[in-house]
Amino acid sequence: MIHLNLEKLSKKYPGGVQAVRDLDLEIARGEFIVFLGPSGCGKTTTLRMIAGLEQASGGSIVLDGRDITDLAPRDRNVSMIFQSYAVWPHMTVAENISYPLRLRKKRKDEIAAKVEHVAAVCGIGEYLGRYPAQLSGGQRQRVAVARALAVESSLSLMDEPLSNLDAKLRVSVRTFLKEIHRESGATTIFVTHDQSEAMALADRIVVMNGGSVEQVGTTRDIYNRCGSLFVAQFMGTPPANIVDVSLESVGGRILATAPGLAPLDLGPAKASPEMAAFAGRSACLAVRPEIIALGPAGGLNPATISLVEPQGAYTIFVVEVLGGEWKIMVEGDPGIEAGRAVSLSIDASRAMLFDRETGKRL
């Protein structure tokens, strides 16, 4: 069932700056959606239009079958958690959580029961009498989450709520948010520029670029079946390696070739008519670091390791190949030092091909 429908949603600021352009998106009830993209891509502006904090320049926002495009924020039945903790320093934890309920003139006994319940869910029940200054950053963020849960809104919006936390605490609170979502089943939109957060939290990821949606899909779709060259280069740590190749149709198979690159068999031509139509033309081949293996010879040969980046469970090698630098990722520590010449092979079945002019996946 569609819970939120964004149709041709746009935002244009004075001076002609187009922050969001013709955004179409349907979100099902109970989904955890993540808006992901670089700074300035329009993800926060989109969230603020949904919340009513920014006026849309065009299009519509329909929540539960009701057009809320022009409603005031207080009339939309949405809650929002900001990048800053946005908790009142002069109020106790209990007062912070109860504040929106008091604004809605709920009964005192109902407020007390709700505050106690959400505080327990968020693991801050023992801190209800404390002030924000007496809490850690993670605890203050939990207060913000508890306050949002207390109002039982139809839609929960989160604008980079973990960005002010240190790395260890971010992982802890991220896990907490996922558990809260599983228990509450609330429809949630989460904005971040951190792809690890997006992939860990999302039911679906909305990758944005230049005010437009590049691709919508599950973590698996976004990572392994990139819809555009931008997504292939944006997603992944390290991101995909890119090389210009020529496509040839040989014996009913599509081969990718380039100087220094052994012909890569990309599969039968009949399985991809669009790819077959590119025979005799150039395209961009995207190769993720983990689909490149050290030896035996085949694919990329020779290659020289210029830098080794140990990561514990895996090792990243920077290699000089095809006239540039590529990164490859190998499990464990193979004990190979910088300066060594190696042979590399590519798992062609997992490589991705893109139109150079449009950037779209073939």
Kindly describe this structure.
The structure is a single chain. The chain has 362 residues and is an alpha+beta fold. The chain has 2 domains: 2-234, P-loop containing nucleotide triphosphate hydrolases (Rossmann fold), CATH 3.40.50; 241-354, OB fold (Dihydrolipoamide Acetyltransferase, E2P) (Beta Barrel). It is built from 9 helices and 20 strands. The protein has helices at residues 43-51, 93-103, 108-121, 137-150, 167-184, 195-201, 219-224, 229-234, 273-276, and strands at 2-13, 17-28, 32-36, 58-63, 66-67, 78-81, 155-159, 188-192, 204-209, 212-217, 241-250, 253-258, 261-268, 282-287, 292-294, 300-310, 314-321, 324-331, 341-346, 352-354. A 6-stranded mixed sheet has the order 6-7-8-3-9-10, with helices on both faces. The protein has a 5-stranded antiparallel sheet with strand order 13-12-11-14-20. It starts with a strand and ends in an 8-residue tail after the last strand.
Number of helices: 9
Low-confidence residue ranges: none
Coarse morphology: globular
What's the arrangement of strands in the largest beta sheet? 6-7-8-3-9-10
β-strand number:
20
The level of helicity is 10-25%
| CATH architectural type of the largest domain | 3-Layer(aba) Sandwich
Amount of beta strand = 35-45%
CATH homologous group name of the largest domain: P-loop containing nucleotide triphosphate hydrolases
Order of helices and strands: EEEHEEEHHHEHEHEEHHEEEHEEEEEEE
> Main beta sheet: strand number and arrangement?
6 strands, mixed
The number of domains: 2
> What name does CATH use for the topology of the largest domain?
Rossmann fold
CATH class of the largest domain: Alpha Beta
**Average of the residue pLDDT scores:** 88
Q: Helices and strands: which structural class?
A: alpha+beta
